[in-house]
Write a structure and sequence with these properties.
single chain; Rossmann fold; 4-stranded parallel beta sheet
């Protein structure tokens, strides 16, 4: 990716605290003697802890007139940053600029408590402090450094180490700053709130903040404020998402940096970044530094209330599995959540959030049907010489290739082997064994006999390291991106395990680097293509298989070192045609009654399997958008596809 051209600046130090170069020692000195008014409001937080969110709420609670119009004013104008210079016009230190500003003055700050204006510490004005769990703070701060031009980025490991070093941490050592504010939580002019609590009850916090500020809002007004303070609304608003505001040169765009100022806003994203050792280090520091302090944080999103719609009786194992899988995904795939017996009464039902939320791992968004523990275990998975990884981007011919590979290896009657469920013959590496043990598949496969066949949708860099180093064999099947989008939308429309969305919504999600499931197509497919000449890689295309299925059966058999008779090749081909696989419950999962219960809208897993079906779905504008992205992202990649 190309980053903005400006060089990072050196940090500044003020009274022993390290600050980013966008801070001004002059402004910080002026802040200490800043004359506070009774109706001043200081919005304070440690960096990446919900400052912008709180600024938005406060500024809209205090707003007069049409909230939607106020929302268009850049947040730095509505709530200037106290310890900096004015970046939106005068270049004056903000404390000086605020001297002549009308009341009420709203301002944000990342200053430690002891550096706040003395009169504020003496009880004048109001202070709203927002705190966030330290693990998510570290992750969010690291990602922000990827996009802020004047702060050196550093690797994840470097930024982690810097954060936990008292003299090196920006804006003060977290375990000094947050406890200091907490000790003043009962001051008459202080409101202490938490990011995690706001996530659970945004509207309630709008009311709490309004009450603290002495503002009486109608229910309609509260609803308007809340609607404009949701994560999705703020992400789309250039006035709050600096990445979308060209008037702020300190921030690179999402295209330049691969990340946006308003990124995820999740609780528990740290689990996608921390190594086990880093987590243990953080836990030890946290335990020591927070000892004796009655301040706790929520480090992952857990259900606080499961709403009952009436008792449900588990009448077969699939119901038990559904509930256990729901609970497992809901609390981020932790270890055993619940055990249910047939005939038992289920005391939980679906809450008002998606049944199975997606999760992120090392920047990649995974479908709920994947398993976090499995993805983590893949990194240390021991590869054998005769292992075969059938890999593809979602809806790109994975099932087709699995069927071919498994039948090439089949002993005995091919038609009988073809009746064995495909997920038993070729398990999904980064998922959980829902057909038996309930364990992550890497763990199950450790004791499986050779040769082990497995499918994966992982990006190349998340494959087992030994596979990337040349051990085992990788067959990668790619498909033209337009048909992939259509096929994936239709699968989502029919599967109950994740929200379906409209075609337009799913299209926008697919072309968003951070929202696309299993990685951004234009990152994932070229990365595999660049390794096509590795000795253990065979790169094939869906469209080529459509033109010459028999030829590809032979090609795959040769790659796997399997010599098949002409009769055997014909048997494999006959069982791998689209019509044969569509009628086979072992490959067309919707022919299986147990799987059918998990679908909606008369969904067929094996739908069309055509080249060019995208023409029935994409608008001219959507097709042109894809063409533009394709030209830009594939200009240096000698990989072409047939689109019709």
């Amino acid at each position: 990716m190309s980053l903005p051209s400006q060089e990072p600046s050196q940090p500044v130090y003020y009274k022993g605290v390290k600050f980013g170069a966008n801070h001004s020692p002059v402004a910080m000195e002026m802040a200490e003697s800043f004359k506070v008014r009774d109706d001043d409001v200081f919005i304070s937080a440690y960096l990446k802890s919900g400052t912008t969110w709180t600024q938005q709420i406060v500024s809209l609670v205090c707003a007069d007139g049409d909230i939607s119009e106020v929302c268009k004013i850049p947040i730095l104008q509505r709530t200037p940053w106290l310890e900096t210079v004015d970046k939106m016009g005068t270049s004056e230190p903000v404390p000086k600029l605020l001297e002549k500003a009308p009341s009420p003055r709203l301002m944000k700050t990342h200053l430690p408590y002891h550096m706040l204006p003395q009169q504020a510490k003496d009880g004048k004005g109001k202070i709203i402090y927002c705190a966030r769990n330290v693990k998510d703070v570290i992750v969010s701060w690291h990602n922000m450094r990827r996009m802020v031009i004047n702060i050196p980025c550093g690797t994840w490991e470097e930024n982690f180490k810097e954060f936990i070093t008292p003299k090196e941490a920006y804006n003060g050592f977290w375990w000094d700053v947050i406890p200091e504010y907490w000790r003043h939580k009962d001051d008459g002019n202080m409101l202490f709130i938490k990011f995690e609590d706001m996530k659970k009850d945004l509207r309630g916090h709008v009311v709490k903040i309004a009450n603290f500020l002495g503002k009486t809002l109608s229910d309609q007004r509260i609803d308007e404020v809340t609607a404009n303070c949701t994560f999705s609304a703020m992400k789309e608003n250039p006035a709050t998402n600096y990445s979308r505001n060209p008037a702020l040169p300190l921030f690179g765009t999402a295209e330049e940096c691969g990340v946006e100022f308003i990124r995820k806003g999740e609780v528990g994203d740290w689990k996608n970044w921390f190594s086990q050792e880093e987590n243990q280090t953080l836990e030890a520091i946290h335990k020591e530094k927070m000892a004796g302090l009655d301040l706790t944080f929520q480090f992952e999103y857990l259900p606080t209330q499961l709403r009952l719609t009436g008792p449900v009786i588990a009448t077969d194992s699939s119901v038990c599995d559904d509930v256990a899988q729901f609970a497992s995904n809901y609390i981020n795939n932790s270890t055993t959540v619940c055990q249910l017996e047939l005939g038992s009464e289920l005391t939980m039902s679906l809450p008002s959030i998606p049944i199975c939320p997606p999760f992120y791992f090392k920047g990649v968004r995974f479908m709920p049907l994947a398993d976090r523990r499995a993805v983590e275990q893949v990194e240390s998975f021991e590869v054998r010489d005769d292992d075969v990884f059938v890999s593809a981007y979602q809806k790109s011919g994975t099932t087709w290739t699995q069927q071919i590979v498994s039948l090439i290896f089949a002993e005995g009657d091919v038609s009988e082997v073809s009746k064995i469920p495909l997920m038993v013959r070729v398990p999904w590496l980064e998922s959980m064994d829902v057909m038996g043990t309930g364990k992550p598949f890497p763990e199950v496969l450790n004791s499986a006999p050779s040769p082990r066949l497995m499918k994966t949708h992982l990006p190349y860099y998340l494959l087992p390291p030994q596979a990337r180093e040349g051990k085992g064999k990788i067959i990668y099947c790619a498909r033209n991106v337009k048909d992939v989008i259509v096929s994936f939308h239709n699968m989502r429309a029919g599967g109950k395990d994740f929200p379906s969305g409209t075609f337009d919504e799913n299209f926008e999600e697919f072309i968003s680097p951070e929202q696309a499931y299993f990685g951004f197509w234009w990152d994932v497919v070229p990365e595999y293509w660049r390794h096509k000449d590795a000795g253990n890689m065979l790169f094939i295309k869906f469209e080529d298989m459509k033109q010459d299925l028999r030829g590809h059966v032979v090609k795959i058999a040769n790659f796997l070192g399997k010599t098949l008779s002409d009769q055997r090749i014909d048997e494999v081909v006959a069982n791998c045609t689209f019509s044969a696989m569509k009628e086979n419950p072992a490959t067309n999962f919707t022919k299986d009654p147990a799987f059918k219960r998990k679908t909606r809208n008369n969904f067929e897993f094996m739908r069309k399997g055509e080249v060019g079906d995208w023409k029935n779905w994409l608008t001219d504008q959507q097709s042109q958008t894809l063409d533009a992205i394709y030209r830009e992202k594939m200009k240096d990649v000698d990989l072409t596809f047939e689109f019709q």
